[in-house]
Amino acid sequence: MSTTENLKGRKVILHDMCLRDGMHAKREQISVEQMVKVATALDDAGVPYLQVTHGAGLGGNSLQHGFALAPNEEYISAVASRMKQAKVSVLLIPGLGTMKELQAAYDAGARSVHVATHCTEADTSPQHIAYARKLGMDTTGFLMMAHLNDAAGIAAQGKLMESYGAQTVYVTDSAGYMLPEDVRARVAALRAVLKPETEIGFHGHHNLGMGIANSIAAIEAGATRIDGSVAGLGAGAGNTPLEVFAAVCERMGIDTGVDLFKLMDVAEDVIVPMMDHLVRVDRESLTLGFAGVYSTFLLHAKRAADRFGVPARDILVELGRKKMIGGQEDMIQDTAMTLAKERGLSIREAAAA
Amino acid sequence: MKKIRCALIGSGNIGTDLIYKIRRSPVLEPVWMVGIDLQSEGLARAREMGLKTTAEGVDGLLPHVRGDNIQIAFDATSAYVHAENSRKLNELGVMMIDLTPAAIGPLCVPPVNLREHADRVEMNVNMISCAGQATIPIVHAVSRVQAVEYAEIVASLASKSIGPGTRANLDEFTYTTSNAITRVGGAKRGKALAIINPAEPPMIMRNTIYCLTEDEPDHARITDSILAMIAEVQKYVPGYRLVNGPIYDGNKVSVFMEVAGLGDYLPKYAGNLDIMTAAATRTAEMFAEEILAGKIQLKAEEIA
């Protein structure tokens, strides 16, 4: 099989995550001015979709997920008002974000939404998907932690989201755990059951260094939308680095419509200088990918490790063993405290025996 | 000892679990189970357990209310039909305990405000949500010591314990619980988050409560207040357990709880459903005790 030949001329829509998933890597501390700077540069480079919200999406400002420097609506309107061609998208996780917040995001200028559920819980999204469609938004059903459901299960869940009105269904490798064959099987299973006009997307994390390879595998199996972030600014070891992916696409003859050199300049001149830590595969982010743990847990686990004296890797492995999923960030501190007690470490101020 | 006779409306998981809880009560007796499907498992089980049943909804119960001396009814149907059920039964002098999100009556969390509702002889009280019952006692335990500027609760629920109604209406759950955190919990602002986890074997319900106090928190007094409150809740929910905390970071107080059910009808992991039925039963018991002691009397309501 000559993959390169097969993909020549295929059109793929890129969706940048720097200003949403990247918020996790910045502890939600990207300013409105920085967002505008990044977004206008990406718009100029021809990236068609940019996601802009708190890392946990609409409703994300919380003690559980941290408080950003500005409300979501402020970020969205500041960016959306300056876009020449790019559409602004948002993330909405039912149980955290609500339809009221989706309406507010739309009013601020968002025109696309990832409605995200855990990969087995698609039936918590019908109201939100229907509401997004009613607003006329480009509407995606986003199946997170997709490694925790098999190909047939993902297909069934995607079919549900399509029935609620989703125009695109994503396989979301939130833990950066999947290998190309895992991605291919799930995307192919979706392609087999979804209507021809329903698109399929893939959202990768680079925890095992597989972001690019997995995204290519997704395209081979029928995906037409790929999430990534310039310079990989995202949770864990980051998302699929978008400029690298764009270069690979160009080599393979896949049509992304972006200006590769401009994208490379944004990565080097704008994003890398913004980073608090170099987003890369390090010991802890590799643990996420290896153990299948939600990428956003990384910095929370490091903080809990500092506070309670239990190594972050031990906390992450335990969270994986207990099958904790996205949104359960409270269980990181809880798990760290329980491990500390088991190891006879003293916990300041704790009252539980 | 004389018991107050009760009707259960809704023959699903909650209604069925309520039979077990009420049968165990020294002051309550389950007499009627109301459903809408003659073939439902819930009605069949109720008949097996000796209850009278009807599959004709509340209208099938009304002719028997006087003759069977029904004084308290539990509604575990849906917000859409609760108002009608309540109106019809209140007219006959039956007090309603509302386990739907309808919330047409005052919100009730037993250790926080049940006494007030009983004193006012409220004819309809609402039980909020499972997450509300599991977390608002803790918010109140902090706010009764010092002002809470903001409270946030995170409920993690086993996927198998969440029915289709809640799934399709997650926003309702979020709004109802957030509202009760302020109105009953006493925080100035509130936020509720829900996560549905599909792990096998199913995880036991977990709840994390964060409170931001206005001034520096008094660690000793807040911890004492929380521990006392947990003991209060344990009187009717034995599986309500502190896992970690309270722990203090600046003005933030964090408490990590677990709720195991009794495993009556629903498995033990479904502490979320259990805490609703247990709180509803506790609420009914308080009214029943007062009625039996002759302190309050339920009155048929005039038709407005």
UniProtKB/TrEMBL annotation, chain A:
InterPro entries for the chain: 2-IPM_HCS-like (IPR050073), 4OH_2_O-val_aldolase (IPR017629), Aldolase_TIM (IPR013785), DmpG_comm (IPR012425), DRE_TIM_HOA (IPR035685), PYR_CT (IPR000891)
Matching NCBIfam families: 4OH_2_O_val_ald, PRK08195.1
Site keyed Transition state stabilizer: positions: R20
Listed EC numbers: 4.1.3.39
Protein name: 4-hydroxy-2-oxovalerate aldolase
Domain Pyruvate carboxyltransferase span(s) in chain numbering: 12-264
GO molecular function: 2-isopropylmalate synthase activity; 4-hydroxy-2-oxovalerate aldolase activity; manganese ion binding
UniProt-annotated binding residues for Mn(2+): D21, H203, H205
UniProt-listed GO biological process terms: L-leucine biosynthetic process
Active site: H24 (proton acceptor)
Keywords: Aromatic hydrocarbons catabolism, Lyase, Manganese, Metal-binding
TrEMBL record, chain B:
Active site location: C130 (acyl-thioester intermediate)
Domain Semialdehyde dehydrogenase NAD-binding: 5-120
Xref: CDD domains: ALDH_C
Pfam family, one: AcetDehyd-dimer
Family annotation (InterPro entries): Acetaldehyde_dehydrogenase (IPR003361), Acetylaldehyde_DH_C (IPR015426), NAD(P)-bd_dom_sf (IPR036291), Semialdehyde_DH_NAD-bd (IPR000534)
Transmembrane segments: none
UniProt keyword terms in alphabetical order: Aromatic hydrocarbons catabolism, NAD, Oxidoreductase
Catalytic reactions on record: acetaldehyde + NAD(+) + CoA = acetyl-CoA + NADH + H(+)
Catalytic activity, EC: 1.2.1.10
Coiled-coil segments on the chain, per record: none
Annotated positions binding NAD(+): S11, G12, N13, I14, S161, I162, G163, P164, G165, T166, R167, A168, N169, N272
Gene Ontology molecular function terms on file: acetaldehyde dehydrogenase (acetylating) activity; NAD binding
Family statement drawn from the similarity comment of this UniProt entry: Belongs to the acetaldehyde dehydrogenase family.
Name of the protein this chain belongs to: Acetaldehyde dehydrogenase
Species whose genome carries this gene: Pseudothauera rhizosphaerae
Upper classification of the organism: Bacteria, Pseudomonadati, Pseudomonadota, Betaproteobacteria, Rhodocyclales
